[in-house]
Amino acid sequence: MRESFKALLLETGREGMQDLINWLETETDFYQAPASTKFHGSVAGGLLEHSVAVCRELNALAGRYCQGTPPASLTIVSLLHDLCKVNFYKKGYRNKKNDLTGQWEKVEIYEVEDQMPIGHGEKSVIIAMKFIKLTDEEIAAIRWHMGGYDDGARGGFGSGQALANAYEKYPLAVALNMADLATSFIRKL
User: How far does Cα 122 stand from its chain's mean position?
Assistant: First the structure.
């Protein structure tokens, strides 16, 4: 899966992509990281699996909702939407009661250790743009891929309007949210 992930990114032809891949391989835990602490992909390698699953799902939706969107954009937003999760989780432990024995047992879990607390989608955009240029539509899609689950959409006065405006202007942002939701809740890893 790792090699197909890299091949898909390189096929986009986006300048700087090899530098991004090198960074992922040498300075991050991308290929070993979970996709979440306890929900979708909460296993080692879950982030890679989730990203590839979102890519498949987005490509399935694209013909219906994103006609005319360049294939490179579909690949970039789907595979890079969760860059914010690199170097984000650490292993920890908690006690859990064993249902069979009734005894408490120490189990390994993932915990959040956010070293760059600037927002989920925003952080993914910022990280990607350190290496590659993104179009306005790609920026909006990655930024708002969490839809109503994003803190920016649930915040104070007018914050939901930015999400609505992005979704109205950029069908790719809506489709990425749909693909992310589908792979997180319907087609779980």
Answer: 11
Per-residue tokens: 101:
């024995």
- In degrees, to the nearest 5, what angle opens at C-alpha 181 toward C-alphas 148 and 8? 120
Look at the pTM and tell me if it is higher than 0.70: yes
Tens-place pLDDT, residues 36-61: 998 788 899 999 999 999 999 999 99
User: For residues 88 and 119, is the Cβ–Cβ distance under 8 A?
Assistant: no
* Residue 144 DSSP label: T
Of 151, 163, 159, 181, which is closest to residue 58 (Cα–Cα)? Answer: 181
- 3-class secondary structure, 110: strand
Task: Please identify which residue in the block is written with the tokens 């007018």.
Answer: 158
The pLDDT tens digits of the residues spanning 126-158 come to: 999 999 999 999 999 999 999 877 777 766 555
d(CA 79, CA 12): 11
Strands (E), the chain: 89-97, 104-112
